[in-house]
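[Solved] Which block belongs to which protein?

Original post:
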Amino acid sequence: TEIKIKTLEKSQDVKIKSGTQPNSIIKIKSQGLPSQNSNRRGDLFVHVVVEIPKKLSKQQKSLLDEFHNLD
């Protein structure tokens, strides 16, 4: 899955790999703050936050049950 994030200067697509766990950190090289002593930039770190729905429709619950019962 790809998401679009805002960096300090532009928007950038970031790939979220399958199996990425909540609270994971993804590093984007050279997109962070500029260094005080050079023209180089630091890295930007993206914190992965997963929102779990509090309410599911009957169809969503049924699909989750089906998925749970797969071997």
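(Second protein starts here: sequence line, then its structure tokens.)
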Amino acid sequence: LYNNNITILPNEISRLISLKELQLDNNEIITIPNNIGNLKNLTKLDLNNNKIEKIPIEIEKLINLETLKIS
């Protein structure tokens, strides 16, 4: 989903509980939904080159996360 001018990450993303990698770099995302913490199997999250203003505390629940890219 990288480089697609995505502006909103829908809350429904939390239903993808088997997701291991999520590459959302080079978009226009401003906020990350709080329920991102439900993605317990996520090992890689790439949010580089977006317009994110705040990281939700729930990101701490991503217990298998090995790589987090935010700029």
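Accepted answer:
You had them paired correctly. Confirming on the second one: The CA atoms of residues 2 and 24 lie 5 Å apart.
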